[in-house]
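Practice problem: predict the structure.
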Amino acid sequence: MARDGVPHALLFAGIDGIGKTTAARALAMVLNCQAPLPAGEERPWPDACGRCRSCRRIAAGLHPDVIQLQPEGAFFKIGQIRSLLDVLTLRPYEARYRVVILRDAQAMTTAAANALLKVLEEPPDRTILVLTAGGSSDLLPTIVSRCQAVRFAPLDPDRIAQRLVENDGLAPQDATVVAALAGGSLGRALALARQGAVAHWRRRRDWLARMLSTLPGQGPSTVLAVAEELARDGRRAGESLELAKTWLRDRLVALQRPELVVYADRREDLCRSARQAADRNRCLFQIRRLQEAQRALEGNGAVRLTLESLFFDLARGDGKAAGGN
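Answer:
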């Protein structure tokens, strides 16, 4: 924007719930604002006013030249793309730039993606296309090569927690738990908060913290009981593992940089736990095994078997996986 060189096709890539579509709408507002705010020392780029007729219509999803498409069901149908191509043969109704936002572009079928290629190769005048997706690898290389990719990083848990406290009225100790579960996604954090399950996850975090400190050296019956408890959550067991992983991460940083712990409401407990269990390699091993179990669950691995294998490894006192190094 500052160089007046917005490319005709952009790919906004990143996890769900971090603002890719919101940023695309903001771009449309800046491109078409009737009273843009000039660049200055504090903001070295122009910005939309947010108050003019164009800005208000875009924000409300009512502007005829800002087109938002998303999959019909699981996939984009080729008919959707063909209808879009017909619209793009016409000049914009009133905007300086027509902006097309294709949400979840990775859901395009091969036929739909090939139909879109024509527009990407020969873009219509005064038209900007913004594709959103989880990552570049989710799209055909021919699509990616014709877009300028912008990577959206996961949001900092502290910023998510602050938003939940200030805008959604969560207690700080609850907001930190939800932010840790969200994996950098504000959208996921808001969904968890709305489910009214914050107290459940806070109790689950505290139980996991106690379990991680007492599990090493325990016998098979205790290990199987822990795995059974988490298996009751089914596919949501991965969220419990995220809580445990964050607790271990906090233990690693608590002694050196206590102000950086995610679970600020448990800072004193974390520092005490870190002093009592100074085996850094053991903690790193536990984090790696939790990550491996999360990936297995995300890949539709058997929940009970994955958890049993994980907790038998965590119960070993030597920091090694069973049967490995």
